[in-house]
TrEMBL record:
Its EC number is 3.4.16.4. The keyword Signal applies. It is an enzyme of class 3 (hydrolase). This is D-alanyl-D-alanine carboxypeptidase. Residues 42-351 form the Beta-lactamase-related domain. Coiled coil: none annotated. Keywords: Carboxypeptidase, Hydrolase, Protease, Signal. Transmembrane segments: none annotated. The lineage of its organism: Bacteria, Bacillati, Actinomycetota, Actinomycetes, Micromonosporales.
Amino acid sequence: MSRPLWTVVVSVGSLVATLAVAPPPAGADRPGAQRRALAVALDQLVADGFPGAVAYGRVDGRRWQVAAGVADRVTGARARPDDRFRIASNTKAFVSTVLLQLVGEGRLTLDDPVERWLPGVVRGNGNDGSTITVRQLLNHTSGIWDPTGERSFWAPYLDDHDWDRVITPRTVIALAVAHRPDFAPGASWGYSNTNYLLAGLIIEAVTGRDAGSEVRRRIVGPLGLTQTSFPVTDPKIHGRHLHGYDLTGRDVTTFSPSYDWTAGAMISTAADLARFHRALFGGQLLAPAQQRELETLVATDGGPDGYGLGVQRMTVPCAAGPTQVWTTDGGGPGFTSIAVTSLDNSRQLVLAGNVYDIDRDVRGLPPVPASAGSLAAMQSVLCTTD
């Protein structure tokens, strides 16, 4: 994914379409009514072109999960609420959390230059790791170019159909620094997966352990996220899962996660992702000082209201007035997902669909079906009613 998914959602007209959708009826805070409203929204996503969709909703202590459509277009297997999917850039929040925990332990600071931990890695063609901080990696103000935004990067997969081709994170970083930066560090904002590959290498430099192991040791294990994994080169999704498709209907479920690593390689379920969000925004994973850093926003060029350290602030249009929420999201070959949490952590939605067309995305075209269902799903859970 070369841009935040919320930008993609807006670009395909979902916001405009959703404003024409009737808000949840009065009394929708009742579990049955809210669950039905969420189910209707998922049915809309399927009607608009997603083969399948899954969702998790929570309002205070009430929780429910729903699914619509099919997980596999060939077998016709129905989508189930606990199906696994690639969470793509939702991974970034896991990685920023690990780095913030290390900051809280005094093992590095957010103002450390990248050069301190990765000497010589970000150098040349106007790139200078001594002028870029860890914080600027995490909030996408480093200016480092993202080669995954170019179609040529994807040629081995899209043209040669070499779905298990391994492209290492260091290869991606080398391509990035062979290109001039998009802007001087701190001068602007620009979404770049390269930032989070460098963040993964910094985790390894600080801890002496691989980044995936640190995510598992610090977050996945303690939270009991038993359906969450962090593959490095394995192109398969194991266990019961959604199949992922592009907009032509081609099955792209088998796809090497190697290039994405700490920028987006993780696999999870709606319930596991919701549990992580609940812990993260409930202050269970970070000390107060690091929680404040996580939620400190920089302005973005359109899309979210602001970007923190791997998380975003967004406004959901509601009948009673706009509601601000925290979000993480992900869009990569075959899968689209977004996790949304109210600012008081009392309401949550995790939504995933099994279409994302990376070929169209890197050509600046809508990578997902245009649908009012995504915003309708958010409204059904995040909007209060009288």
